[in-house]
Specification:
GO molecular function, one term: tRNA-2-methylthio-N(6)-dimethylallyladenosine(37) synthase activity
CATH superfamily of the largest domain: tm_1862 like domain
Bound molecules: 5'-deoxyadenosine, iron/sulfur cluster
Shape: globular
Oligomer: single chain
Subunit structure: Monomer.
Family: Belongs to the methylthiotransferase family. MiaB subfamily.
Domain TRAM: 373-437
Cofactor: [4Fe-4S] cluster
Helix content: 25-40%
Structural class: alpha/beta
CATH class of the largest domain: Alpha Beta
Distance between the termini: 65 Å
Strand order of the largest sheet: 2-1-3-4-5-6
């Protein structure tokens, strides 16, 4: 014995991909494979990939090329490309680029053990069919994170935003049954997990018979009140009053909503097929803030969509000023073959895109900084996640509003504990402070802001 083949896996892109990699490892473990984090010892190298922007794909191509030296040393090493790039580029990765032995799309992971086996025998393989029903509902993911777990509750996307490749790489929307998700959360709770993030490209479209996403969130929140519940991503078109109400009602559903707006210009929103306008979005934000006091909001922005004028760009800047998001993920538009926007051309010159993106980033950083400065002197509930990356003397955790907090270690505090931290310093991305109280169990008030000195 001790003969099990070793897998090394790298994951790029969104949280859905991180969750998918755990599903892949769950499948492979069942077939006798073990996991290694030392690439030079691997018998199988898997790369779970992202196609959302050109840049992400180029990074992976570079990475795959660098694996060829391991292959030289160990000719029967199997290299596999998984995820969105596998779906998009299909056999090109094998035939033209010769970068992979197997290519497996997001709905075909059950075939992976067979494909890897065939590859050991010298047969390259490809499986990229999309499914209308696959949710991997019965697969137990191999989780490697400490106290926080992801659960994919729906897969695919039917929105067809004109810039986005996801509807083509991940296929149609489909949901997992509510009962089985609740059972999984019960199991995670009994295993000591303290945080669960419900994932979907578009969680508001979750549906199981008569149950919608608000019903799911409510059922999951009742499993264990000491467990924080997060979810992503929400679409501004489908954010129902019932869902907002549900977030407000449950103390352990985090006061944090990621709500991508993409642009502040109605003309661009229309061209993007986002199906809402600026007015709808602002009204939604008003309603959310009124119903969930202290809620933190983040968004996604794209700079330089086809035909975007200086006027359109200014509308995006003014929307950022009007909403004052806690944070944002900001991107330069990247044309993706096969999407509707691709046919619109890519007429905003790169230097204009870069300049607009810089203006957006600068403004948003200033806003995030100001919001975080306002937390100095305040006491916040933090779930301790682990050691700070920068220093072994410090813990890192998050507020329920999803802000990272760094604070000195305390001997009776461990990852998974809840503590109250008084904030004494802040920048645009991180809060710093000191523990003032150890809770261990979660505080059951809705607002994470426990008290204030001023
Ligand atoms: N170019 C730039 N950004 C994109 N996104 C999706 N497609 C593209 C693209 N073609 C961004 C959107 C989305 C986030 C996940 O990625 O802002 O919300
Ligand atoms: Fe892409 Fe739009 Fe679907 Fe999000 S909602 S995955 S941006 S098509």
């Amino acid at each position: 014995m001790g003969e099990s083949k070793r897998i090394y896996i790298e994951t790029y892109g969104c949280q859905m991909n991180l969750a998918d990699s755990e599903i892949v490892l769950g499948i492979m473990k069942k077939h006798g494979y073990s996991l290694t984090d030392d690439i030079s010892k691997a018998d199988v190298i898997l790369v779970n990939t992202c196609s959302v922007r050109e840049h992400a794909e180029q990074r992976v191509i570079g990475r795959l090329s660098s694996f060829l030296r391991y292959k030289k040393r160990k000719p029967d090493l199997v290299i596999g490309v998984l995820g969105c790039m596998a779906e998009r580029l299909k056999k090109r990765l094998i035939e033209e680029e010769n970068l992979a032995d197997i290519v497996v799309g997001p709905d075909e992971y059950r075939k992976l053990p067979q494909l890897v086996n065939d590859a050991f025998a010298g047969h390259k393989g490809i499986a990229v069919k999309l499914s209308k029903v696959e949710t991997y509902d019965d697969i137990t993911p191999l989780r490697t994170e400490g106290i926080s777990a992801w659960i994919t509750v729906m897969r695919g996307c039917d929105k067809f935003c004109t810039f986005c490749v996801v509807p083509f790489t991940r296929g149609r929307e489909r949901s997992r049954p509510l009962d089985s998700i609740v059972k999984e959360v019960e199991m995670l709770s009994s295993q000591g997990y303290r945080e669960v993030t419900l994932l979907g490209q578009n969680v508001n479209s979750y549906r199981d018979g008569n149950y919608d996403f608000a019903d799911l969130l409510s059922a999951v929140a009742q499993v264990d009140r000491n467990m924080r519940i997060r979810f992503t991503t929400s679409h501004p078109k489908d954010m129902s009053n019932k869902l907002i109400q549900t977030i407000a009602e449950h103390p352990n559903i985090c006061n944090y909503i990621h709500l991508p707006v993409q642009s502040g210009s109605d003309r661009i929103l229309e061209l993007m097929n986002r199906t809402y306008d600026r007015k709808h979005y602002l009204e939604l934000v008003r309603k959310i803030r009124e119903t969930i006091p202290g809620v933190s909001l983040s968004t996604d922005i794209i700079a330089g969509f086809p035909t975007e004028t200086e006027e359109d760009h200014k509308m995006t800047l003014s929307l950022l000023e009007e909403v004052r998001f806690d944070g944002a993920f900001m991107f330069k538009y990247s044309p993706r073959e096969g999407t509707k926007a691709y046919a619109m051309g890519d007429d905003v010159p790169d230097e204009v895109k870069v300049r607009r993106l810089m203006e957006i980033i600068e403004l948003q950083q200033k806003i995030s900084y100001e919001i975080n400065q306002g937390l100095i002197g305040k006491e916040v509930e933090v779930l301790v996640e682990g050691e700070s990356k920068r220093s072994s003397e410090q813990w890192m955790g998050r507020t329920d509003t999803n802000k990272v907090v760094i604070f000195p270690k305390h001997e009776s505090v461990k990852p998974g504990d809840y503590v109250i931290v008084r904030i004494n310093k802040a920048n645009s991305a991180t809060l710093f402070g000191d523990i003032v109280k150890i809770l261990h169990e979660k505080n059951l008030s809705k607002n994470s802001l426990v008290s204030s000195l001023n």
